[in-house]
Specification:
alpha+beta, 2 domains, 6-stranded mixed beta sheet, 4-stranded mixed beta sheet, 5 helices
């Protein structure tokens, strides 16, 4: 009997262990199913919501909610949305602190101003790229109306960054060309793109003293990119004659309104809005698609140009690196209580209460292509959007400036801890988006243990 009892106890213990293991597996599987279903639900929700937001912002902007009048700034509204959501972790019975980022983007058109005449001098009509990060909204500009300094070409020429148009040997200024050359009378030629078939297309060896070698030096490195024959074409036909476009020099006095010209020498064309002055004192008001907060035209050519002029810039956009900080200044409490819970006579209960109160700060880095003083008026104070005139002109009326500090983004300045604030460093420029997410939660369960007679 003794051996039988021991064997029975051993089998009973093994059954209990197997039951416990199987139960834990079942609970884990159920938890993973819930976690996956929650993630899918969040994903579907954010994709649909960003589309609805794009429609709404296009509609509101068209009616003048942000500019006080009809505006085409969001005829095609672009939305980029980032949210950090709590996830489910079956292994943490006190509740999870893990957050999963959900990212979505969308664009939509719901505007009555598609055929409205647009004055490109009106800044409220310039296109906007809206970025939402955990509820903070950043209306970034993707173009800018500017009046380039008329002294800049002369200064660049003195620095030997703009070559002399009279040089015969193109190799003499290999890699120096930045979109313009200086004429002997002190005025300038600017390079414009002319497409094959246009009246200004040049098929001969030299046009206006500008050789084919220079016209087809597409990346301004001193070497023609299309200057050889091929077996698939007649021997007297060059590949460049079949190419889509070429650089053509245009005299400064021949540039007219609505022309696309590389005025500032960044190898990207600007639209001429107005021609001011004449002769050697001529200047231009331009719409520059690289001078906003975000340069959406950034490509390999941009990086090559930055190398040529000896500058370094980060590619604009949201970076992959994320820093998360958690603070429990108010305390995180775990309390277990046992004893009589309700006003009963015979029942005994065990009750468990878990409460937490902590602050999560999630830091993201957004590099900008330029500082337009849209968010920071000076290096120490954010730009105020409360002024009706300035806000409406810039299309941000009824919005709140999300930038809380300017400069010294990792220091305490005047009693303000910039390390916990959304801060813009205008010297780079780089934006540190710090989302402060409060997490207050509590769980409670009650179970009956036994009945007392």
């Amino acid at each position: 009997m003794t051996g039988f009892a021991q064997q029975y106890k051993k089998q009973a213990g093994q059954s209990a262990a197997e039951l416990a293991i199987f139960g834990s597996i079942v609970i884990f599987v159920i938890g993973m199913i819930l976690k996956t279903s929650l993630a899918v639900s969040h994903r579907s929700n954010i994709d649909l919501r960003v589309f609805r937001m794009a429609l709404q912002e296009s509609y509101r902007t068209a009616l003048g909610d942000y500019s006080g009048g009809f505006s085409s700034g969001r005829n095609n509204s672009y939305i980029f949305l980032v949210e950090d959501r709590l996830s489910i972790d079956p292994s943490k019975k006190q509740g999870t602190r893990d957050r999963s980022p959900y990212i979505a983007q969308g664009n939509a058109t719901m505007s009555i101003n598609l055929f409205m005449d647009i004055d490109e001098n009106d800044t409220e009509d310039l296109s906007v790229y809206d970025v939402f990060i955990n509820g903070q909204r950043f209306p970034f500009t993707i173009s800018r109306v500017s009046l380039p300094d008329p002294k800049k070409p002369q200064e660049m020429y003195d620095d030997k960054k703009i070559p002399d148009c009279t040089k015969n040997d193109y190799d003499e200024y290999r890699g120096e060309t930045v979109g313009a050359c200086r004429r002997s009378d002190g005025r300038y030629y600017f390079f414009v793109k002319v497409y094959n078939g246009d009246d200004e297309w040049c098929a001969s060896g030299s046009c206006d003293g500008w050789s084919a070698q220079s016209r087809f030096d597409l990346d301004f490195d001193g070497t023609s990119d299309f200057d050889v024959t091929t077996a698939s074409l007649p021997s007297d036909v060059m590949i460049r004659d079949r190419f889509e476009w070429q650089w053509v020099r245009k005299k400064s006095e021949d540039i007219q309104e609505d022309d696309l010209v590389d005025i500032d020498g960044d190898w990207k064309e600007e639209r001429i809005l107005e021609v001011i002055g004449s002769g050697s004192s001529i200047s231009y008001k331009v719409l520059d698609f690289q001078d906003g907060n975000f340069d959406l035209t950034w490509d390999e050519g941009t990086e090559k140009w930055l190398d040529e002029v000896g500058e370094y810039k980060h590619k604009p956009g949201l970076q992959a690196d994320v820093n998360a900080y958690s603070f429990t200044h108010d305390g995180t409490m775990l309390r277990n209580e046992e004893g009589q819970l309700f006003n009963t006579v015979n029942d005994q209960f065990v009750r468990n209460t878990t409460a937490q109160d902590h602050l999560d700060i999630i830091e993201r880095v957004v590099y900008l292509s330029g500082d337009t003083e849209r968010f920071c008026q000076t290096s120490t104070s954010p730009q105020s959007w409360s002024s009706a005139g300035w806000a409406r002109k810039n299309g941000v009326w009824n919005m709140r400036n999300p930038v809380e500090a300017c400069g010294d983004c990792f220091a305490i300045v005047g009693g303000e801890d910039h390390r916990k604030m959304t801060c813009l460093d205008i010297s780079v420029p780089v934006l540190f988006v710090r989302s402060r997410i409060r997490n207050r939660g509590a769980t409670r369960w009650v179970t009956r243990t036994e009945e007392l007679n």
